[in-house]
């Protein structure tokens, strides 16, 4: 019996050491994921077939707001969400001439008609209003959003899902909160609250849409094992990124240009858990985060399933190892 326990303990220790070794190797392999060694993004005008100059988030803002929409095999859900989004943006621009915008769609290696749908909207609204980035192969939602944000032109940058699960009009809740926080930060040490040099794009602030107010209803309707897995995931998120944000995974988030510049030049996770990494980086840079309740509805066709949970946990382990060992160095982009 003692010999059996001895073998069992040794096997367990070997397994733990092996797991730690694999984590360290994989974290090291991903240390340069944020450097963008892929082919540079190119915008093409489908009407003239001419290439359009590609901006970068380090450049001065040219629009008031950028909306970033990652899309992977969204041929059926994307048209409705885009129509609703464009209708809102056009109506707002007609009422406020100072409101300028762009929508950037990132096709993350789709195998269906997503590219065709996206370019139909470019033709309809012009390449100044709607732009498409083609990643060629599937990299993951995090990488698609990062690529779109790095090549956006807005003072404020909103990421939102292609399914339209969150009403686009709720962006005003995030926008208003960012304006309030940015002005407070700018006014610290200023004698005049109406200083003409104030630009919201220069103040690092983030606002996260949240479905936490819907959690009680979700707990009542989900299967027990789904609730168990989600609670476990939230615990791991708490350990990896710390407290402060109840819903890290809502796909409706807004950043000022200054915040986006710092965050997305450092993000390394390319799939579902990049949201958690954003929370970690916000805390590292001391970028204030506001969590704001948004209207959200379940849309059929979600890409997230039970098998996604182990992959998400694996990414969180890699993130913790990468940052805590210093392998993932954070650059202080300004």
UniProtKB/TrEMBL annotation:
Keywords: Endoplasmic reticulum, Glycosyltransferase, Membrane, Signal-anchor, Transferase, Transmembrane, Transmembrane helix. Pathway: Protein modification; protein glycosylation. It is an enzyme of class 2 (transferase). It is a single-pass membrane protein. This is dolichyl-phosphate beta-glucosyltransferase. InterPro entries: DPG_synthase, Glyco_trans_2-like, Nucleotide-diphossugar_trans. Belongs to the glycosyltransferase 2 family. GO terms for molecular function: dolichyl-phosphate beta-glucosyltransferase activity. Its EC number is 2.4.1.117. It holds the Pfam family Glycos_transf_2. The keyword Secreted does not apply. GO terms for cellular component: endoplasmic reticulum membrane. The keyword Protein transport does not apply. It is found in: Endoplasmic reticulum membrane. It catalyses: a di-trans,poly-cis-dolichyl phosphate + UDP-alpha-D-glucose = a di-trans,poly-cis-dolichyl beta-D-glucosyl phosphate + UDP. The chain crosses the membrane at residues 6-25. It comes from Arachis hypogaea. Residues 66-179 form the Glycosyltransferase 2-like domain. GO terms for biological process: protein N-linked glycosylation.
């Amino acid at each position: 019996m003692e010999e059996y326990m001895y073998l069992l303990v040794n096997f367990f220790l070997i397994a733990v050491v092996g797991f730690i070794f694999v984590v360290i190797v994989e974290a090291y392999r991903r240390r340069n994921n944020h450097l963008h060694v892929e082919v540079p993004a190119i915008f093409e005008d489908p009407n003239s077939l001419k290439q359009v100059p590609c901006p970068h988030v380090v450049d001065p803002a040219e629009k008031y707001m950028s909306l970033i929409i990652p899309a992977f095999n969204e041929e059926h859900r994307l048209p409705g969400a885009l129509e609703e989004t464009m209708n809102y943006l056009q109506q707002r621009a007609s009422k406020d001439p100072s409101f300028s915008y762009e929508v950037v769609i990132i096709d993350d290696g789709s195998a269906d008609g997503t590219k065709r749908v996206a370019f139909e909207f470019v033709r309809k609204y012009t390449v100044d209003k709607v732009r498409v980035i083609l990643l060629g192969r599937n990299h993951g939602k995090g990488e698609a959003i990062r690529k779109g944000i790095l090549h956006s032109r807005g003072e404020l940058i909103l990421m939102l899902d292609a399914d339209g699960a969150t009403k686009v009009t709720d962006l005003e809740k995030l926008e208003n909160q960012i304006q309030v926080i940015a002005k407070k930060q700018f006014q610290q040490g200023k004698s005049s609250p109406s200083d003409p040099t104030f630009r919201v794009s220069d103040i690092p602030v983030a606002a996260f849409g949240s479905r936490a107010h819907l959690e009680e209803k979700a707990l009542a309707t989900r299967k027990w094992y789904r609730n168990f897995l989600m609670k476990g995931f939230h615990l791991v998120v708490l350990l990896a990124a710390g407290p402060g944000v109840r819903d890290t995974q809502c796909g409706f988030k807004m950043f000022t240009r200054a915040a986006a510049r710092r965050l997305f030049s450092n993000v390394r996770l390319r799939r579902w858990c990049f949201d958690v990494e954003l929370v970690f980086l916000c805390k590292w840079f001391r970028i204030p985060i506001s969590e704001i309740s948004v209207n959200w509805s379940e849309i059929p066709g979600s890409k997230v399933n039970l098998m996604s949970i182990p992959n998400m946990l694996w990414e969180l382990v890699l993130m913790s190892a990468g940052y805590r060992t210093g392998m993932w160095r954070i650059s202080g982009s300004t």
